[in-house]
Amino acid sequence: MNTVLVANHPETVSCPALFLAAPASGQGKTTVSAALARMLKRQGKVVRVFKTGPDYLDPQILHQASGEPVEQLDMWMAGEAYCQAKLFEAARDADLILIEGAMGLFDGEPSSADLAARFGVPIALVMDVKGMAQTAAAVASGLVNFRDDVQFAGLIANNCGSERHRQLIEDALPENLPLLAHLARSEEVALPERHLGLVQASEVTDELETRLNNGADWLEQAGLADLIERVPSVDFHMAETPAVPELLKGQRIAIAKDEAFSFIYDANVRLLEEMGAELSFFSPIHSDSLPVADALWLPGGYPELHAEKMAKNQPMIEQIQAFHQSGNAILAECGGFLYCLETLTDLDEQQYPMLGILTGHGAMRGKRGCQGMQTAPLPEGEIRAHAHHRSRSSDTDEPIAHGRRQRHPAPGEAIYRSKNLTASYLHLFFPSNPEAVAKLFKPE
Predict the structure, then answer these.
(1) pLDDT by residue (tens digit) across 1-44?
(2) Does the active-site annotation cover 334?
(3) Does the keyword Lipid metabolism apply (predicted)?
(4) How many other C-beta atoms are found inside a 10 Å radius of the C-beta of residue 68?
(5) What does residue 14 show for φ and ψ, rounded to 5 degrees?
C-alpha cells in the first residue's frame, strides 16, 4: 500500500492520485477509468474511485471495476468539506485514488478543473484523437495552458489509429505534457449505453465483467501496467465536518430498489443510517407487499422500461395508495415522481396506469430532456439537488415551489406535495441538509 502518514502531521495522508478528465463528453473517460481500476485491482492494489458530479450510472460501472465503494464528488452539491473528508478517508486505505471528471475539463461551476485544483490532483487528459494528429496536440496544449492552477500528468490518446499516428501526436506535444499512452480503438471494451447514459451495471454484470477485463488487457498492452509507479502522491487533509444528529432514531424507512428504481446515492443511505433510521428495501416490480415502515423513499431510475410490470403489480399499488392516504411520509424523486402520477407513457407510446397518488400524467420525450444543478426550496429547508430526465409531466396540480437553478434565473423543476408526499423531478443530495431531510421522512 502506497498511502503514508505525513510526518508530524497526523491529520494529513499522502496517496498517489490521478484525475481523469477530457475536452468534452464522449471521449472515453469512463471506459479508461474503469479499465484502469480493473487493471490495478488485478495487480492486487486497492483503488478508490470517485466520480465528479451528480452521476448514478458511471459509479455503478466503476464500483464493479474496482471492487470498492464509489463516491460522487461535487463541491457545489456536497460542499468542499464533504469532498475533502471523503478523499482523506479514501487516502488512508488506498494504493491509488482515481477521480473521473464530468463533461469537458473546464465545463460547469464548479468544473472538474476546479475540483482538481482545489485538492492538487494531477490531471490525465483523455482525448479521442480519431481524425486528427498534430491538432490533437494543439487542443491538448490549449487545455494545459488555459489555467495556471491545475497540473497535468500527461495525455492518454484514445482511438489512436497506428504507430505513425501516435508519433505525429507525441512529437507535437509540449514538453510539459507527456504522452502517457496511445489506445487503439476496441469494440471489446466499449461500455453499453441507453438514453440517460450508460446501462446500469446490474443489468449487464457478466458482459461488463468481460469488457472490464478486456479493458485491463487493453491498457496493459498500451504500456500502462506500471502506471501506479508513475503517479505522484498528493497530500490529503482531514476535514472538520459536523456530527450527524440522530433525528431519525427508530424511524423505519422503506426504499424502492430494483431494475426500475436504482438512482440511489450511497451517501444518502449512509446519512439515513447515521441519523438512526431503520432501513429496508422493496421492489415495486417484484414485491407483493411493503415492508413495515413509517416512511417511503421512491428514488429515480428507469420506470419507463418496466412500466407494464409495475402496472400489473396491483397488490403493491394498493398498499402504497393506502400508505399515502394514511398520511405517512413519502419522498418521490424523478422516476419515483413518475410512478406517483396517474399514468406513464413509455418510449413506444404505450400508456400504463401508475399509483395515481398525484394528479397528472408522465410521458417519455425521446432525446430531449432537462439536466442541471438546482436547490430545492422546501418548507423544511433548502436541499441541494440536480435534475436529469427525458420525460415530461402534464395536467399536474399547482406545485408548492420550484427548484432554484444554480446559474439561471428561470424557474427549475416543480415540487409537489399531497398530504405528506413530496414529489419532484429533483434528485436530492441528503448530506447537504440533514435536518431538512429528517423532517421530510419524519414530519411533525
Answers:
(1) 555 555 455 699 999 999 999 999 989 999 999 999 999 999 99
(2) yes
(3) no
(4) 17
(5) -105, 130
The secondary structure of the chain in percent helix, strand, coil, rounded to multiples of 5, reads 30, 30, 40
Closest C-alpha to 356, from 366, 343, 374:
343
Contact 352, 317 (CB under 8 A): no
Instruction: Please write the tens of the pLDDT for every residue from 117-170.
Output: 999 999 999 999 999 999 999 999 999 999 999 999 999 999 898 999 999 999
Instruction: Please give the Cα distance from 98 to 19 (Å, whole number).
Output: 6
- Name all contacts of 182-187 with Cβ < 8 Å and 24+ positions apart: 182/129, 182/156, 182/157, 182/222, 183/28, 183/32, 183/156, 183/157, 183/158, 183/159, 183/218, 183/219, 183/222, 184/159, 184/160, 184/218, 184/222, 185/130, 185/159, 185/160, 185/161, 186/214, 186/218
**Which run of H or E residues covers position 50?**
strand 47-52
pLDDT per residue over 255-279, tens digit each?
999 999 999 999 999 999 999 999 9
Compute the distance between CA of residue 35 and CA of residue 211 in angstroms, rounded to an integer: 8
d(CA 72, CA 54): 6
CA distance 279 to 296: 10
Residues 98, 104, 105: CA angle, nearest 5 degrees: 55
* pTM for this prediction: 0.90
Distance separating alpha carbons of residues 331 and 327, to the nearest angstrom: 12
Amino acid at 331: L
